[in-house]
Amino acid sequence: MNSSRRRFLRLALAATVLPRFSLAAALGGPRKKVLILGAGMAGISAARLLRGKADVLVLEARDRIGGRIHTQRRSDGTVIEHGANWLHSGKSNPLVPLCRDLKIPTIASDNWSSVLRATKQGPVSPEVQKKLDREFDAQVKRLLRATPSGKPSLGQVVEKVILPGLNETEKKNFLHALRTNIEDDYGDDIDKIDFAYWQADPTEEGFDRLIPGGYDTLVNRLAEGTTILTGKKVDTVQVGHRGVTLHAGEEKWNANYVIITAPVGLLKAGVIRFDPVLPSWKTETIERIGFGTFEKAFMTVREVTWGHDISWFDYFDDDPMRLASLFNLAKYESDSRAVIGLDAGDSARRWAGESDKVILARVSAAMQPFARSPFEVTDFFRTHWHSDPLTRGSYSYPAATELVGDRERLRKSVHDGHVLFAGEATELDQVGTVHAAYDSGRAAAREILKKL
After folding, report:
1. Residues 381-408: tens digit of each pLDDT
2. Which of 182, 259, 193, 185 minimizes the C-alpha distance to 226?
3. What's the DSSP call for residue 408?
4. Which helix (DSSP H) or strand (DSSP E) does residue 440 occupy?
5. Which of 96, 145, 201, 422 is the S-S candidate for 440 at Cβ 3.0 to 4.6 Å?
């Protein structure tokens, strides 16, 4: 990225995030006052729709905006995304035309159509790859035809319907494919994913897309003109006869309405206190909804010794601390020499207790079979969403513990409509995605506009 572009982004961010704030100035006048808890995509999209129609203030606990969208630019110029990486379902994603309108470039990522597989012994031949793909597709069709009773997890149905008909090698191959195709998408193990939802999960339309300049360019543009206070860790949401008061230690802010966009992991942890307490149907819903862990490990090498034309490397390793999927960032960023190792569920949660040295060794080992010659690591970085006190995980997924209607219940306002909820977990479709968060924020804003 050139220096003028960096300077523009710094100016845009400086205009957006305000270190000091006068409550009377920003929330004065006859218009209704709305507080938004969280400057992630849900909070920013809600504020953008309400701007000009209500007095809006966004409170963010971090020292930056974006929430689970977090772009970092490494010393070598590589743009890495700690959190959200793709605009999923590029053909139907509302953020794709929005980027176009805002003149933010995006590029197509060819999903899994460009993939190279390998074991510890070396790359798998194209003929074997095709055979494995055919076998996996056949077993998935069997899964889709299954009609189990009760409310089982995907793992329970796999155990009962698929695995008994496979030999040991076929079982390992199938379970590995589920890791890369299912667990890494949902952020948790198949034993926790709801089978009924998995059957009905909407099909992605069009290639996923990347924002080569960084996901934060979209966040910053959408946040322009919105008053945002960072570093405000709200600990109490208090509702009284005069409206809502948010407390962050000794500081407090008053409004007519508040939109809560905190991640489900944070709501589960009970970090935010509600006074009066949330109704039992709301807290029980929060407990039932799944919240997974998805971690990344970025490895940059001095010289790329694997194919630049490959999008994904699929490494077969049945170790519990497996690292199956690796994304070739070098294919999409001309100056990049990085790969991104992905891990999810229980395996990713085990990462939290391991050192950088151990995780780097696993990423290096996963890339060895794909390398045409030895490579030298020059930079390494890993995410820590599981241990992040402001998220307690990565994103929601349809858990086997959920009941029909839980997403609507999570979204439903409480305390006579003064406390509203938004975020990717409140959406019925495409849960866990940025555009679900975007849609949810707009839905909450429209609900307030009806009241106005």
Report:
1. 999 999 999 999 999 999 999 999 999 9
2. 259
3. H
4. helix 434-451
5. 422
